[in-house]
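Researcher: For the record, we're logging two predictions in this thread. I'll number them. Prediction 1 follows.
Model: Prediction 1, sequence and structure:
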Amino acid sequence: MIIAIDIRHLTTPRTSGVGHYTIRLIEEMAKTSPEDVFILFAAGRRRTLAHLPEFDAPNIRVTTSHIPNRFLFALLRLPFGPTLENFLKVKPDVWFFPNLNITRTKLPYILTVHDLSFKLFPKFYTFKDRVWYKVARTERFINEATHLLAVSNSTKYDLVELLKVDPNKILVTHLGVDNEYSHGELPSDKNYLHKHKIDYPYLLTLSTLEPRKNIETAIEAYSAWRAKLGSSTFQGEVRRGFGQTSIPHLIIAGGKGWRTHGINEVLKHSKFKDDIHLIGYVIDKHKPALYRHAKAFLFPSFYEGFGLPVLEAMACGTPVITSFTGSMPEVVGDAAIMIDPFDVSDLELALEQLSCRRGRSCTCPNEVESKWQPQGLPLREKLIARGLKRASRFRWEQTAQLTLDAIHQIK
């Protein structure tokens, strides 16, 4: 079968979460189905196409067009304009779109929908982005697909409820975790941490800095938690709980998105701003080390279609605190502490319980009841064990096989 895949979104300098999904899925599908031919299509100027990743599999062909993407978008919107397959040397049997895009085709196609945040939370998008979704005719693009792939049952539910999509045409294909995300320190870890000037214990949050990721709540909760450390008893419990002689800092990792002034304002007014570090974009090669050495991973996002960072953190043996909204309960199961992303005190309480080893006999301020602390094994160790087991269930091989099954249904 000749399968065309749209990779126009892989021409950016930094790989996004959707970009990572696309790359790993293509690699695994080519390996899993050597009898299929995969034609990858991208467009743009030479400097734009220079950002494309390399694919080594013998059954992968890359076709590029030097038409700037803005011009291509205009052509595809003309009443009698070209189809995407007109830019290919060989006519494919089917198109696979790993992400929403502006397109036109006369062939059957399969589309992956990662989330409907543009529909549910338009305020989290710039005016330019909202216009793009209208120009892309997103809802029509979704409804006319031969099959849809949803990265979670949560996204499938949203497709059915919001866009009235027939549930029988939707297949749920969870994402996978790369083998690089593993438990146990590697010799290279110290070098990677040194590159980011990290020589202190820390809590970690990692995502694009944008409103939907709710970084402000992480800063506020951390500051409130630190304010309670004026109690020497509580300080002792936290140090023993985290196995450190000093209190963890907060590291905020991730590239700058948009409307970050809220983060800057909250940070400016925190009494502990000297212990809160914005380290910017982190390349994939450094992420496992950053996860592995974190005392906990905080991911209080308002909404996710899947939420791959929480799986990556769990695979590295790091306890996770995340939201109970969107796909998060489906992804983490019982392997994480789930909180209300709209309630700063909920995240603060989770930090207290994760950092105190004494469970229901905790002597933290105000005699906070340990609702997160199970009997016996301390919570942190229990979450690490559960997280490792949970993360092992999500493999790219399975994602690729399910995707191929859906593609091969089209004759």
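Researcher: Logged. Prediction 2.
Model: Prediction 2, sequence and structure:
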Amino acid sequence: MVDALGAGEQILLLRKGGLAEGPGGLTLRALRFWLFPTQFHAKQAGLKSTLARRVEVPAVARREAGVPATVELRFAATVEGAAFVTDLEDLKRLSPFHGWSDDLINERFFWRQPPGLHVWVLRVFRALSPHILTLTAAHEGCKSWIEVEPTIDPAAFQPVLDDASFARRWAELPVSVPLVTDASPAPSPSPGGTLASSSPALSVAWTTVSTREAAEQLARPLVESGLVACAQIDGPITSIYRWKGKLEESQEFRLTLKFPADRISAVERSVHEQHPYDTPEWIVVRADAVSEKYLSWAGTGVQADRF
């Protein structure tokens, strides 16, 4: 599948989500990511004949057999359009643009409730210098997302399809797949209708530092870079805690960060890289109720994680 995307043969990725996604199902955690050729659950019967012959012995299986296994990361992608399609006939009409067989479409469509499949329109980019990733147990299993070390430098990639070719392929889709915008990056299942989309949930995170200056040094780059929509500093506050077996009390400043939920990994990584503490407080919750206007503002105030 990764080879087909990397060759420009298809622009669609179909997903239902794996067991690791839990009861909440699959979410669009990032708008830019590496394409990882896992081949987990790889079955020739589930692919069209043009792709079935490309199925090889999975690298994970080689690792389990005691052979050091690596994966070559050659392609990355940005999500340009996304929808949750609940009409089985619509999915079959999309057949020329993806590699799944009709049998696999039927199987995954009805696996888990509600019936349907996530359809993502991907703009694929080829790495000028592929990255060799050594597999670990963290890369295994029935999951849609994994964390990998290499970051994506936009300057180190080139698009598989030029702008005109990609736009033409997208326009040829017989089913509407809405454009992903900064304010609405994640489609979700809904009880009725063929396509459903929703605004991203809002996350709120807290951390503490010893001085106001340190809080500002953390906050300003996060907002300026577009990772978070809002950073608030309050304090001093009194913190009472145990550290290395002793009861401690100190004056700290609390930093509150607000950002779309799909940015959690990027925000956490940036905070931990810049935080002056060895073991910083890092607590994130998802807001259950947020006004539409505020949620829209928070989404449009954040830069999408794209090339």
